[in-house]
Write a structure and sequence with these properties.
Layout (H helix, E strand, L loop, with lengths): L2 E4 L14 E6 L19 H10 E10 L5 H10 L3 E9 L10 H8 L5 E5 L11 H7 L3 E4 L3 H5 L11 E8 L8 H8 L34 E3 L11 E2 L19 H11 L5 E4 L6 H8 L3 E5 L3 H12 L2
Helix pairs in contact: 7-8
Amino acid sequence: MKYCIYNQCCLGLSHTDDGSIDCLATDPPYGIGYHGMDWDKALPPTKIWADCLRVLKPGAFGCVFSSVRLMHRMMVALEDSGFVIRDVLFWAYLNGMPKNRNIALDIDKELGVDSKVVGEYKYVQGYKKGGADNYYAKNPKKVLSPASDMGRKYNGVGNAIKPVYEPIILVQKPLDKGLSVAKNILKHGVGGLNVEDTRIPYDKNEGKVGHNPHPKGRVCGNIVRTDPFEDGYDKFFLVPKVRQNKDSFNTHPTLKPVEIMHHIIKLISFDHQTVLDPFMGSGSTGVSALSLNRGFVGYEVESTYYGIAQKRLKHT
């Protein structure tokens, strides 16, 4: 399948014709200032979503990743541009990075009291180059305990709970006026979700379920997991998170696994259709699209990430 990628801002979506794209799958900036990154300090302007709406075919679906804190703002921007909100998928994982802080240590600092060193951290998630063991052997991180009376009183009090999911907003461009879903599909080839290709296979030891079980398995739900939740049989797709620098050349800090893009692209498109990603990053959406026999159009303003995407797509 063909692909076209552009090292430029996606505003205006130049090079892409109106009504030429079959679906949208993208992981845009969340507006939360992730790790102080400049490109993540604000949500994309509504005009970008209006541009996406313009180049999509009537009835086309889109999946837009977002953050828990600013998902509502992203949804308003999508609605204001003309999209219809159809659902929110939840990518749930058990290994989320805790963002809590022991406020008791801040209380010590406010009172001018030095917190006690009670040990060194022995384990952290292995995101550092060379592995956690190598990194923290050279840069030991101290375990502190509050020393003031007020600090001890509030020991363990925090300011956040651990995030264990990311929302993926499912949107749709309105159907052509006066057309049913069937008529829209006949005219434009889009307008319905590809449920057949996203069914969840039965477990190898599980009997068929339901009054008329489908040979391919259950209809997919709006939750995608990274781990089983110990419910006898996991009735959701499992998609693991990506370890940072899994590929030695890929340094993108918010890399999405190709497997979750597979699930999304299979749900909102069909063979030989074209996928748009206006925030391509290092190209996971494009890798997935080409692997699934779809075409791909991507935009990425950062030259470093664009170069990574070029390399990944060339070898897909």
